[in-house]
């Protein structure tokens, strides 16, 4: 039941076209992204030093990435000293194997899960299912997705493509197969739906012996893991089970405890547009049995799965700064039209368009088409709390798809051939055309990016020229972050804080 | 080769462009952001952190009360009575006088207590480690007056006593300075909430659906 994966997805343009035809999906998405967008702007405007926080956030991540080996070793030492066990997984299969074995060792056949992009990325639920272990998603949206045998479509609100009537139907029809059935006469009132989920999941929390989570941050200096959430299901999974297994991408490490002061301000405002999310849990290893507070066994699985390949690319590396806030999805005119599923991975929207092709390579039609799933309007860069220049990376990856070049695949340097004339290029071209053929999408994006300047050439220089010669490149708002930062700071100096 | 060596080896090869002489601290991190957004002294003073804390807690739908030492026992008694609680979870180091006037049966959290047993308790009363005015956040660190993380999670009604002004800081950076990372920490900003259904905010999915904060004047 939880076996759906993104494997075998059609290339972006096909998936996007069918999503665009789905009027209800588009309505749901437009409403949702529009709402979050406006709220986020307000939450960000409350902090006069947003640009400085953003600069610090980007710099901390850059420091971490440039010395990732150092920080990973430091983290391992700190977690181990605090009573945790650290495992290393080079790829998805290895991570799944490690988690499966750890669960087996407990003798349990059920685990409760906190929403985690990393476990979605590696298809952990399906792998556990194969081993006879059932993984229960406990985040409300993930529950909706799991019960509906569906795939998440948004980083933060994975069931954003479903409206309340659909959710009621999923609960009524499916809850009983997974445990406590939906209450009689359940309506589509959101409070009632949430209550149904509370009751359904509580029975799982109270008996669960094993919890599986991801983490938003790992502090190298102290060995502390941080999970940021809203509902309390995270707290349940991190606190009640006897064994906790956290699967975390290696890029999630931050150097010091103090660094959290930057990210705990950037993340909630960027993602849920709140001053602070309802719950944040931090734990360091295990506590001894006298004071036992939380799991007695803690396992941290450090996941590579293509991250070191992205790290090896000096342009694409910045994608690893991402703190998964989803702000870039909510401002993206292409995401708003195409929906999250069209991106064919756990990471939809602009971040997915640059991250997925780096994690998985560009050998499939889908992955090769992703860098073209953008109008390059630049809104994603404007809102990104860690200043990832997504348009820059998109253009760069396009060039690589079209022209081929040096890449790192599973740690090995290889040269990929140009996709010209290849199915991948055709898929890519269709995706580009799809993005450009939606003037509504373009306009919305351009409005958002009104402040940015056109510094980017209309034709790519160097080897990209051949590709762009016959195709006009949409303007990239390429004001450098430093310029932008200096300008906003100067504005402030003149007393204008907005 | 172990996977540890594989991954670390890949990381090192990936970073071939980083000069060997560069240390982690050589990568500059500009920290020009504010340490706090609410100056409490000087010309830009914006009032007391305690008032901002109260305002932000209310904004996030927590219920805020104020009391002094004389009024606290009766206030807590009233809050539990209004809730109709017959049992209240009590952390081991909660000052006994806080609940001197309260009727409900005290339930103590023992290591052997199962989550199911705790699930039948109506309310929990705790202290806190620190409260953050700018974000309306209270932080628990598992000290004896707060107890294990699970006791503030399972009951549906959480009453948290914040000693003011001593436990209140203005900002997130100030809070982190005071906290000990080796303790299990829970940051709470308002009651449990979700916006997963058409983005309409619904209080209370798994954590306590009612959060009452008592600002206790020291
Ligand atoms: S790329 Fe930036 S805006 Fe997008 S999810 Fe990541 S951190 Fe957020």
TrEMBL record, chain A:
Q: Which PROSITE patterns match?
A: 4FE4S_FER_1
Source species, please? Streptomyces taklimakanensis
What region holds the Lactate utilization protein B C-terminal domain?
397-488
Give the UniProt keywords, A-Z.
4Fe-4S, Electron transport, Iron, Iron-sulfur, Metal-binding, Repeat, Transport
Q: Which portions of the sequence form the region Disordered?
A: 1-20
Segments forming domain LUD: 72-303
Q: What name appears for this protein in its UniProt entry?
A: DUF3390 domain-containing protein
UniProt keyword RNA-binding, yes or no? no
Signal peptide coordinates: none
Q: Transport as a keyword? A: yes
Q: Which GO terms describe its biological process?
A: lactate metabolic process
GO MF assignments: 4 iron, 4 sulfur cluster binding; metal ion binding
According to the entry, what is the taxonomic lineage of the organism?
Bacteria, Bacillati, Actinomycetota, Actinomycetes, Kitasatosporales
Give start and end of each 4Fe-4S ferredoxin-type domain.
319-388
UniProtKB/TrEMBL annotation, chain B:
Q: Which domain of life is it from?
A: Bacteria
Give positions of region: Disordered: 15-47
Alphabetical list of Pfam families matching this protein? LUD_dom
Comp. bias regions, Basic and acidic residues: 19-38
Q: Where is the LUD domain?
A: 116-216
The coiled-coil segments of this chain are none
What PANTHER family would the database entry show? LACTATE UTILIZATION PROTEIN C (PTHR43682:SF1)
Protein name according to UniProt: Lactate utilization protein C
Species the sequence originates in: Streptomyces taklimakanensis
């Amino acid at each position: 039941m939880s076996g759906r994966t993104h494997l075998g997805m059609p290339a972006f343009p096909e998936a996007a076209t069918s999503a665009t035809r789905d009027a209800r999906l588009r309505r749901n998405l437009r409403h949702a992204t529009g709402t979050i967008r406006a709220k986020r702007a307000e939450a960000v405007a409350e902090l006069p030093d947003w640009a400085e926080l953003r600069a610090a956030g980007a710099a901390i991540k850059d420091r971490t990435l440039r010395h990732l080996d150092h920080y990973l070793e430091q983290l391992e030492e700190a977690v181990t000293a605090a009573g945790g066990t650290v495992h290393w997984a080079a790829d998805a299969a290895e991570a799944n194997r490690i988690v499966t074995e750890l669960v087996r060792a407990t003798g349990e056949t059920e685990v409760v899960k906190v929403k985690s992009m990393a476990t979605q990325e590696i298809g952990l639920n399906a792998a556990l299912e194969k081993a006879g272990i059932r993984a229960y998603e406990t985040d409300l949206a993930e529950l909706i997705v799991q019960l509906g045998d569906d795939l998440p479509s948004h980083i933060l609100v994975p069931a954003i493509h479903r409206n309340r009537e659909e959710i009621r139907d999923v609960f009524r029809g499916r809850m009983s197969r997974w445990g406590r059935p939906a209450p009689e006469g359940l309506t589509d009132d959101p409070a009632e739906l949430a209550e149904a989920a509370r009751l359904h999941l509580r029975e799982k929390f109270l008996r669960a012996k094993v919890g599986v989570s991801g983490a938003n941050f790992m502090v190298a200096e102290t060995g502390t893991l941080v999970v940021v959430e809203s509902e309390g299901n995270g707290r349940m999974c991190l606190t009640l089970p006897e064994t906790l297994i956290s699967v975390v991408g290696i890029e999630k490490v931050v150097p010091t405890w103090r660094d959290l002061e930057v990210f705990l301000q950037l993340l909630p405002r960027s993602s849920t547009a709140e001053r602070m999310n309802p719950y944040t849990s931090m734990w360091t290893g295990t506590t001894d049995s006298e004071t036992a507070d939380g799991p007695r066994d803690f396992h941290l699985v450090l996941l590579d799965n293509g991250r070191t390949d992205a790290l090896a690319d000096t342009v694409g590396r910045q994608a690893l700064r991402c703190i998964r806030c989803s702000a870039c999805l909510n401002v993206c005119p292409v995401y708003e039209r195409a929906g999250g599923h069209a991106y064919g991975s756990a990471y939809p929207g602009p971040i997915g368009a640059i991250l997925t092709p780096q994690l998985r390579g560009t050998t499939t039609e889908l992955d090769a088409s992703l860098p073209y799933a953008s109008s390059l309007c630049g809104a994603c860069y404007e809102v990104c709390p860690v200043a990832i220049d997504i348009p820059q990376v998109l253009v760069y990856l396009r060039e690589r798809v079209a022209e081929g070049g040096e890449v790192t695949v599973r740690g090995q340097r290889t040269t990929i051939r140009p996709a010209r004339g290849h199915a991948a290029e055709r898929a890519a071209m269709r995706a580009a055309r799809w993005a450009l053929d939606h003037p509504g999408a373009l306009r919305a994006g351009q409005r958002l990016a009104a402040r940015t300047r056109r510094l980017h050439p209309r034709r790519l220089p160097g080897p990209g020229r051949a590709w762009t010669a016959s195709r006009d490149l949409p303007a990239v708002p390429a004001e450098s972050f430093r310029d932008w930062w200096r300008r906003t700071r100067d504005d402030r100096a003149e007393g204008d804080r907005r | 080769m172990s996977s540890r060596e594989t991954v670390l080896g890949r990381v090192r090869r990936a970073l071939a462009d980083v000069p060997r002489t560069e240390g982690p601290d050589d990568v500059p991190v500009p920290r020009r952001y504010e340490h706090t957004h609410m100056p409490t002294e000087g010309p830009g003073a914006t009032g007391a952190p305690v008032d901002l804390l109260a305002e932000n807690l209310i904004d996030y739908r927590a219920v805020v009360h104020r009391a002094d030492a004389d009024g606290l026992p009766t206030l807590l008694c009233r809050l539990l009575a209004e809730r109709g609680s017959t049992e209240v979870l009590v952390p081991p180091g909660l000052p006994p006088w806080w609940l001197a006037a309260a009727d409900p049966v005290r339930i103590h959290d023992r290591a052997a207590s199962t989550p199911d047993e705790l699930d039948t308790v109506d309310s929990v009363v705790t202290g806190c480690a620190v409260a953050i005015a700018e974000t309306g956040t209270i932080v628990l660190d598992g000290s004896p007056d707060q107890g294990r993380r699970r006791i503030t999670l399972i009951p549906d009604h959480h009453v948290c006593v914040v000693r003011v002004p001593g436990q209140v800081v203005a900002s997130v950076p100030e809070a982190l300075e005071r906290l000990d990372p080796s303790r299990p920490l829970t940051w709470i900003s308002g009651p449990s909430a979700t916006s997963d259904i058409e983005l309409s905010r619904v209080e209370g999915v798994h954590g306590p659906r009612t959060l009452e904060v008592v600002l206790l004047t020291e």
